[in-house]
UniProtKB/TrEMBL annotation:
It comes from Butyricimonas hominis. InterPro entries: V-ATPase_116kDa_su (IPR002490). The chain crosses the membrane at residues 312-341, 353-378, 409-430, 442-467, 473-489, 521-543, 555-579. The lineage of its organism: Bacteria, Pseudomonadati, Bacteroidota, Bacteroidia, Bacteroidales. It is a multi-pass membrane protein. It comes from the Bacteria. This is ATPase. It is found in: Membrane. Keywords: Ion transport, Membrane, Transmembrane, Transmembrane helix, Transport. Belongs to the V-ATPase 116 kDa subunit family.
C-alpha cells in the first residue's frame, strides 16, 4: 500500500470528491473519533444494519410463484416491512394472552352467560370453584347443590347453585373467568390468526421484490455513509479554504492514480507507510488459496505488517476437513452437489462451491485410503474385486501390528498436528524476521530444531531404528546449539540472566503447551472414526431390522432407514468437519504462528449504485 496525501481548494472539493469516487481506488483514512460523534453518520449506519437484518428475514421466507411488488416507495420501504413484522409480533403476543384466557373455559365446557344472568335475576346465585380431587366433600352436593363439571389433572371443577344471599363457604378456590366470553375469545383468536396468515402471505409474495429493492437501498445508504466518513476525515487549513485528505492505494495502482491527479488542480504526495500507520489490508492470493479467504476472514484479517496465513492454512484445512468427514461416499455427495450447482451459480457464491468441490475430493481420498464408503468398511466385506486392495487400507487390522496396536489414522493425525505446529513456528520466525530482524527469530528456530532433533533421538529407537553413534553425537551437538539459542538468545539485547529466566519459562510453556496442542489433533481421527462407525450402524439397522419382511416392504423400510440415518450422520459430520478444523486453525496454528490479527479491510471510496 502507498499513502496518498491530498490538498484541495475548497471550491474544487465537491467536484474532485465525485471524480475520486468514480475512480474507486483510494481507501480514505477514517477519523474514528469524529465519525463516532457524527449523529447523521450513525443514523445511516443504523439504517444499513436494519436493512441487512430485514434482507435476512425476507430471504428466509418461502418462495412463491406469484411475485408482487411492495406497496411502498423506496424511502418508506424499510418502515413498511418492519411495520408488517412488528404487527405479526404484536399478534403473537396477543394470541398468547387470548389463548390463555380461552383455556380458562376448557374445564367448564360450553355454557351461556346470558342464561346464568337470567337465573341470577330470578333469585339464584352461581359460584364456580376448583379443588384437589381428594379435598372435594360429597356433602357440598346436598348443602350447596354442588355439581361437578369436569375433572382434569387431579383437580375437580364444580359449580354451586344457591338461593340469592346464601353464604357459600368452601375450602376451595373460587374460579374467576376472563371478562370476554368464550365465543368472543374464539372470534378474536380466529381473527388474529387470519390476519397473521394474511401478513405472512403478503410477505412471501413481496419477498423477492423487497430483497432486490432493499439491497439497492442499502447500497445507496452505504454511499451516503461513505461520503459522511470522508467529510469527517477531512482537515481544513488557511481559514478553511484548503482541505486535506489522506488515504491508501495499492502500489500497482499508483501510476494510474498519479496520471489522474496530474490533470487536477490538487497537490498530492505518495509515501510509503510507517510502522505507526494503520494501513488497510488487501489479501492477494492465488486462485486456490483465495478460496480459503472466507475462513481467514471469519477470525480476523492480518495486520498490514503480518504475513497472510491463508495460503499456509489452506492445504491443512482441506486435509482436516477430509479426515473429520472421513467417508468417501459423503465426500462424493459434497463434490457432486457443489459441481452441479456451481455450473450455474452466480459469481458471489461460485467460490464457495469450488471450495466445496475441493473439500469433497479430499474427503473421497481420505475415505478411500481408510476404506470407508457410505459407512461400509471396505476391508471387511467379501467382494472379490476388492480382494487385491483390502490389505492396503489404513486400518488398525492392517497396520496396527506395526504401530504398537494403534490405529494408523490416529498416528497420522498426531503427525500432521506436529507438522502444522512446527510449520506455524517457522512462520512465526518469518514474521519476527520481517518485523524486527532475524536475531529475534533465532530462539524460535532453535525450538523448531530442538523439537525435530528430540523427535529423531527419541522416536527412532522407539520404532527399533538404530542410530549410528557418530550421527547420534552430531545430533546431540546440534541439540546443544539449539539449547544455547533457547536459553541465552531469546531476548536479544538483554542480559544473560534475563535470557536464561525467559528460556526456563519458555521451556515450561513449550512442554505443557506443545503436548496439549498435539493431543488436540487426535480429534481429527476420533471424529472421522465416529462418523464412519455411525454410518455403519445405520447400515446394520437397515438390513437387520427388516430381515424377514416381504420384499417390497423390506425395500421401502431399508430405503427410509438408510436415507434418514445417513442424512442425520451426514449433517453431524458436516458440522464437525467445519467446526473442528477451524478450531485447530484458529487456536493451535494461529497461536504457534504468532498471529495477531486486527487488520482493516481495504475498502476504496467508490460508487456502489449505478445511476
Amino acid at each position: 500500500m502507498m499513502k496518498l496525501s491530498l490538498l484541495i481548494f475548497y471550491k474544487e472539493y465537491q467536484t474532485f470528491l465525485g471524480e475520486l469516487r468514480e475512480k474507486g481506488m483510494v481507501h480514505i483514512h477514517e477519523n474514528t473519533e469524529r465519525s463516532a460523534e457524527d449523529t447523521d453518520l450513525q443514523a445511516k449506519l443504523m439504517l444499513i444494519k436494519r436493512a441487512g437484518e430485514m434482507i435476512t428475514h425476507m430471504q428466509s421466507r418461502n418462495d412463491v410463484e406469484q411475485i408482487e411488488k411492495v406497496k411502498a416507495d423506496d424511502e418508506h420501504l424499510l418502515e413498511y416491512l418492519e411495520g408488517l413484522y412488528n404487527r405479526q409480533e404484536q399478534i403473537d403476543q396477543q394470541l398468547v394472552g387470548l389463548e390463555k384466557d380461552y383455556a380458562a373455559y376448557r374445564p367448564w365446557g360450553q355454557f351461556s352467560r346470558e342464561k346464568i344472568q337470567k337465573l341470577e335475576a330470578a333469585g339464584w346465585e352461581f359460584h364456580f370453584f376448583s379443588v384437589a380431587e381428594q379435598k372435594f366433600q360429597p356433602e357440598w352436593e346436598a348443602t350447596y347443590d354442588a355439581v361437578v363439571i369436569s375433572e382434569m389433572m387431579g383437580q375437580k371443577y364444580f359449580v354451586t347453585v344457591t338461593p340469592a344471599g346464601m353464604k357459600v363457604e368452601l375450602e376451595a378456590d373460587p374460579y374467576i373467568f376472563p371478562q370476554a366470553t368464550q365465543d368472543e375469545l374464539k372470534k378474536q383468536i380466529k381473527g388474529l390468526r387470519e390476519e397473521s396468515v394474511k401478513i405472512g402471505e403478503e410477505l412471501d409474495a413481496i419477498s423477492q421484490d423487497a430483497i432486490a429493492r432493499l439491497k439497492k437501498y442499502r447500497l445507496q445508504i452505504t454511499e451516503m455513509a461513505d461520503k459522511l466518513k470522508v467529510e469527517d476525515a477531512v482537515q481544513t487549513f488557511v481559514d478553511e479554504k484548503v482541505i486535506a485528505l489522506e488515504g491508501w492505494i495499492p502500489v500497482e495502482k499508483e501510476a494510474e492514480m498519479r496520471s489522474f491527479l496530474e490533470t487536477k488542480d490538487v497537490y498530492f504526495e505518495f509515501t510509503r507507510p510507517t510502522p505507526e500507520d494503520d494501513v488497510p489490508v488487501q489479501l492477494k492470493n492465488s486462485a486456490y488459496s483465495r478460496l480459503f479467504e472466507p475462513v481467514t476472514k471469519m477470525f480476523a484479517l492480518p495486520q498490514y505488517k503480518e504475513l497472510d496465513l491463508t495460503p499456509f492454512l489452506a492445504p491443512f484445512f482441506m486435509l482436516f476437513f477430509g479426515m473429520c468427514m472421513g467417508d468417501g461416499g459423503y465426500g462424493l455427495i459434497i463434490w457432486l452437489v457443489c459441481f452441479i450447482i456451481g455450473r450455474k451459480a452466480s459469481p458471489a457464491i461460485k467460490g464457495y462451491l469450488v471450495l466445496g468441490q475441493y473439500l469433497g475430493l479430499m474427503t473421497v481420498v481420505v475415505g478411500l485410503l481408510t476404506g470407508s464408503f457410505f459407512g461400509i468398511a471396505l476391508d471387511s466385506v467379501e467382494w472379490p474385486w476388492l480382494a487385491g486392495v483390502k490389505s492396503l487400507f489404513l486400518t488398525e487390522a492392517n497396520y496396527g501390528k506395526y504401530l504398537g496396536g494403534y490405529n494408523p489414522m490416529m498416528i497420522i493425525a498426531v503427525a500432521v498436528g506436529i507438522i502444522q505446529i512446527l510449520y506455524g513456528m517457522c512462520l512465526n520466525a518469518a514474521r519476527l524476521t520481517k518485523q524486527f530482524g532475524f536475531k529475534y527469530a533465532v530462539s524460535t528456530l532453535g525450538w523448531v530444531g530442538a523439537i525435530i532433533l528430540l523427535g529423531v533421538l527419541i522416536g527412532l529407537p522407539m520404532l527399533k531404528v538404530v542410530i549410528p553413534e557418530v550421527l547420534k553425537y552430531v545430533l546431540y551437538v546440534l541439540l546443544g546449539l539449539c539449547a544455547l539459542t533457547i536459553y541465552f538468545y531469546n531476548s536479544p539485547g538483554k542480559g544473560v540472566f534475563t535470557n536464561f529466566g525467559s528460556g526456563l519459562w519458555g521451556t515450561y510453556n513449550m512442554a505443557t503447551g506443545l503436548l496439549g496442542d498435539t493431543l488436540s489433533y487426535i480429534r481429527l481421527f476420533a471424529i472421522g472414526l465416529t462418523g464412519s462407525i455411525l454410518g455403519g450402524v445405520f447400515n446394520t439397522l437397515a438390513f437387520q431390522l427388516t430381515d424377514g419382511l416381504p420384499a417390497v416392504v423390506k425395500f421401502i423400510a431399508v430405503f427410509l432407514i438408510l436415507i434418514i440415518g445417513h442424512s442425520i450422520n451426514f449433517g453431524l459430520c458436516m458440522i464437525s468437519s467445519f467446526v473442528h478444523p477451524m478450531r485447530l486453525t484458529f487456536v493451535e496454528f494461529y497461536k504457534n504462528a504468532g498471529f495477531e490479527g486486527g487488520g482493516k479491510q481495504y475498502e476504496p471510496f467508490r460508487k456502489k449504485v449505478n445511476d
